[in-house]
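(Protein data)
===
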Amino acid sequence: MDEALEKIPQLARLGVEFIEQPLAKNDWDGMKVLFEKSPLPLYADESCVFEQDVEKCHGHFHGINIKLTKCSGITPALRMIRKARELNLKVMMGSMNECTIGSAAIAHFLPQIDHVDMDGPLLLSEDAASGIQFDFGKVTISNQPGMGITLL
């Protein structure tokens, strides 16, 4: 925690916008201290995997990062967003190594979230579908029905 207290203000001066999961997932006491002292918003990742975790994050984080592959899918993610909003938490949706199929699912949440990390397909040497284009930070999704993807 001491290292985070020292480095977070430095990161703020460098223009970093927020910090994701700065401490171990079960370090709730440390997160409470960081939450009160951090000049940057703190987002839960490993501390917020399932629906019941959202409420625990209130008062310890400024926001949560939802990963569809971890939370069990679209329906639980919708409930997590709703609960986060009730608790005045910001919402990010992230990816790990999803191909275009997973990123297309994330794209459908864009109007409901504050931040997104859906670059999983860019990290793959081979993708399973097409339908999303990435152009230097701009994402274009297909206007095709459903998730707008074509399996390769």
The mean pLDDT is 95. Helices lie at 2-13, 28-37, 51-57, 68-71, 74-86, 100-107.
